[in-house]
Amino acid sequence: MTIAPVPDRVSALAPEPAPLVDAHGRTISYLRISVTDRCDLRCRYCMAEEMIFLPRSALLTLDEMAIIAERFIARGVTKIRLSGGEPLVRRDVGDLVQRLGSHVGTRLDELTMTTNGTRLADHAEAMVDAGIRRINVSLDSRDPDRFRFITRHGDVAKVIAGIMAARDAGLRVKINMVALAGLNEDEIGSMLAWCADEGLDLSLIETMPLGAIDEDRVDRFLPLTRVFDDLAGRFPLVRDGRRTGGPARYWRVEGTETRLGLISPLTANFCDGCNRVRLTTEGLLYLCLGHDDRVDLKTALRGGGIAGLDAAIDDGLAAKPARHDFRIGVGEAPAVARHMSVTGG
Ligand code: SAM
Ligand code: SF4
After folding, report:
1. FRET pair for 121, CA 20 to 30 Å: which of 37, 266, 320, 324?
2. Does the CB atom of residue 113 touch ligand 2 within 6 A?
3. Ligand 1 neighbourhood includes 141 CB (under 6 angstroms)
4. pLDDT in tens, 96-129
């Protein structure tokens, strides 16, 4: 399916709308889009086995998603990440990638994607052709049995084949690994060594209290401070001072191309420099991963066109919380009821 142009599309890129600055003086330059809440895996820390997904009638069309994204671009967003759920399970997602990719190098500095990699081998070439240069692929274990256990039925060979296809097509690949106590903590060092051998980057992520799952996250929470001390004793790590406006801190493995990122929203505060907002597949704009504040861009766009969309975005910016309030403790309810797959990781 090709996304048909709509009258609003021209005005979605109209020049000189107000830039995106929130009530705390932070400039928003980064939009994450959850293309679908559906997924072909069921990672234990992310969703329950019997996850209920949104009805298709509730979703933004891909054209509406593109119009909203283009309006954000016109208002100063320079980086867009497509995520999910699993973005590559949404039919015709390639059309969205192509359309947004057409802005890379002009209004957009970067279009990127976070994927579980199960379908990556089929999409890698097209992603490069569309202008994507870097992607994140989730891989919590390279051991087939352990990967199947964590994802509840995934085939790690497919994901690794996807990673290699992406790398060979010219994409810079960063592995996302959620650090899970008692599940994959003994594999973190060998994952970093593998990434260094294969020319990949690695980001380690602390499990976050988002949405109800079938198990208790407290048992699985692994503070990255502890992990880092162990890695620093085994690898020559050099601090890389780059900041992305998110919860990541970076190191380089000396003598290699590999960058190690630690994403620790629970043990490191990052909110002062937050530069991002998140659009869900049903058109809700969430202002913070850790709060329920949101505005309904689908209704605003359908009822009021680009002017309605702008007004709703402005309302959202005014309501962007100063900081998240994540805690993981015995008896703590999740910080927010929605899952990472709804907001896009
Ligand atoms: N399905 C794709 C994938 O797995 O890469 C994209 C969506 S997934 C929600 C995005 C990232 O969020 C993945 O790296 C995943 O491991 C991470 N994630 C999911 N739930 C999480 C949680 N509760 N805490 C921390 N990271 C989480
Ligand atoms: Fe699916 Fe990604 Fe969540 Fe795993 S982490 S269940 S792959 S959305």
Report:
1. 37
2. no
3. no
4. 999 999 999 999 999 999 999 999 999 999 999 9
Cβ proximity of 237 and 207 under 8 Å: no
Q: Rounded to the nearest 10 degrees, how much is the dihedral formed by the CA atoms of 335, 339, 342, 345?
A: 80
What is the residue with the minimal CA distance to atom 25 of ligand 1?
207
Topology, domain 17-343: TIM Barrel (3.20.20)
281 lines ligand 1 (CB under 6 A): no
Sequence-ordered list of residues with C-beta below 8 angstroms from that of 52, at least 6 positions apart, any chain: none
- pLDDT value, residue 299: 98
CA 49, chain centre distance (Å): 21
Give dist(CA 31, CA 112) in Å, integer: 11
Cα 95 to its chain centre, rounded Å, is 19
Please say whether the beta carbons of 194 and 142 come within 8 A.
Answer: yes
Of the candidates 39, 58, 59, 60, the residue with the CA atom closest to the CA atom of residue 49: 39
Given a cut of 70, whether residue 146 has pLDDT beyond it is yes
Which ligand is nearest the CA of 247, by number? 1
Beta strand 248-253 pairing with 284-286 = unpaired
Per-residue tokens: 223:
């503070």
DSSP H helices in 185-274: 188-198, 217-220, 224-234
Q: Please indicate, yes or no, whether the overall pTM of this predicted structure exceeds 0.85.
A: yes
Is residue 216's pLDDT more than 50? yes
Residues 6 or more apart whose Cβ sits within 8 Å of residue 3: 62, 63, 66, 92, 95, 96, 99
Contact 263, 201 (CB under 8 A): no
Question: 3 and 99 in contact (C-beta within 8 Å)?
Answer: yes
Please tell me the distance from the alpha carbon of residue 231 to that of residue 253, in angstroms, as a whole number.
10
Q: Which ligand is nearest to the CA of 208?
A: 1
What is the largest distance, in Å, between two alpha-carbon atoms of the chain?
A: 59
